């Protein structure tokens, strides 16, 4: 049992724990916006941990560049998904307004309608 | 049992719990947005699971699959969110 093996094991456990946390989060949270918050954990930090584990296990340049590409695409596309889902949720009233502390977008839409 | 074998069992249970929770939300989900979101989470868990399997067994056979999934995961959710009309919101 070497140090690299322990590091790989811990990184995989971090990724698995974040996946489980996201699953529990999207079951327990009340509306689409809060579930979006829970869903992003394995998509970014979990994937990063598992990619570092692969690089530690197979340290070649090809693996490193492919892992950087995977992370880049994930970081490019996941904010787009979250933004579009959040926008559609707001526009179609899937937001629990009683749970919001402050609704800035509502105020902006009201100001825009007045003009 | 070696250390990585123990880790693989624990990680498998955790991935399984996450995936089952995502499937539960796909089945129950009150709106189609919840289902799209849960599908995204299921895909992310699948990507993480593929990577964990590669790291445990020390091979890189499915690294390209991870790349393709990371590239095209965005299509489904964005098309659902973009073309969702107010009336068919369920």
From TrEMBL, chain A:
The keyword Acyltransferase does not apply. Coiled coil: none annotated. InterPro entries: PhaG_MnhG_YufB. The chain crosses the membrane at residues 45-70. Keywords: Membrane, Transmembrane, Transmembrane helix. PANTHER family: ANTIPORTER SUBUNIT MNHG2-RELATED. Belongs to the CPA3 antiporters (TC 2.A.63) subunit G family. This is Multicomponent Na+:H+ antiporter subunit G. It comes from Agromyces ramosus.
From TrEMBL, chain B:
InterPro entries: MrpF/PhaF-like (IPR007208). The chain crosses the membrane at residues 6-24, 36-56, 62-85. Keywords: Cell membrane, Membrane, Transmembrane, Transmembrane helix, Transport. This is Multicomponent Na+:H+ antiporter subunit F. Pfam families: MrpF_PhaF. It is a multi-pass membrane protein. It is found in: Cell membrane. The keyword Signal does not apply. Belongs to the CPA3 antiporters (TC 2.A.63) subunit F family. It comes from the Bacteria.
């Amino acid at each position: 049992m070497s140090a690299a093996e322990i590091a790989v094991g811990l990184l995989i456990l971090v990724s698995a724990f974040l996946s489980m946390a996201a699953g529990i989060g999207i079951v327990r949270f009340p509306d689409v916006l809060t579930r979006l918050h829970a869903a992003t954990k394995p998509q970014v930090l979990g994937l990063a941990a598992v990619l570092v584990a692969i690089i530690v296990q197979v340290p070649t340049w090809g693996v490193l560049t492919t892992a950087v590409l995977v992370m880049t695409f994930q970081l490019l596309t996941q904010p787009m998904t979250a933004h579009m889902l959040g926008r559609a949720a707001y526009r179609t009233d899937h937001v629990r307004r009683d749970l919001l502390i402050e609704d800035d977008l509502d105020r902006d839409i009201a100001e825009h309608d007045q003009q | 049992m070696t250390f990585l074998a123990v880790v693989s069992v624990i990680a498998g249970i955790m991935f399984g719990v996450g995936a089952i929770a995502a499937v539960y939300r796909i089945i129950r989900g009150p709106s189609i947005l919840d289902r799209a979101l849960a599908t995204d989470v299921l895909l992310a868990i699948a990507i993480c699971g593929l990577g964990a399997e590669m790291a445990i067994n020390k091979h890189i056979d499915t690294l390209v699959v991870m790349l393709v999934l990371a590239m095209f995961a965005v299509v489904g959710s964005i098309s659902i969110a973009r073309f969702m009309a107010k009336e068919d919101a369920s």
